[in-house]
Amino acid sequence: MRRIEPSRLLLLIASSLVAVASVNGYEFVLRRHFRLSIGRWTTFRIAWIANTSNSVIGFAGVAGAALRTYLYRSRGLSVPTITACIAFLSTITITGISLLAWGGLGGAFSDRCRDSDSSLDLVCHLGDRALFARLFAVSTHPFFIPNG
Asked: Transmembrane stretches, by residue range (predicted)?
């Protein structure tokens, strides 16, 4: 970090704070959708703790879900409500990943497809059938969500 210019370091820190704060918006959607009886500041703190810990610890969202459960439970929310909140967040996460997969199918994240003439580089990924199959499976996930 000593080799990074102070202005770039400040920009990096600010970008990180904005990124985590934007993910916290989902918690406010939960608060409104499930009519949770917790304040805005508490909602923001719970989201901040759960999301940053989940980003550092990982485990495919299990760490964030466990922390979220603990923090909501300490605020007196019922287990069925907490379970519904976590299930709701899980669908949001896989839907976001599927949107990124659409970008992958289009060649947006692949350097080896940059030489292709087509703006939609599906053909580029056909050479790597395993990658294409995984991206296609994840990208079509939202089409298979039941209507309630």
From this structure: 49-67, 79-102
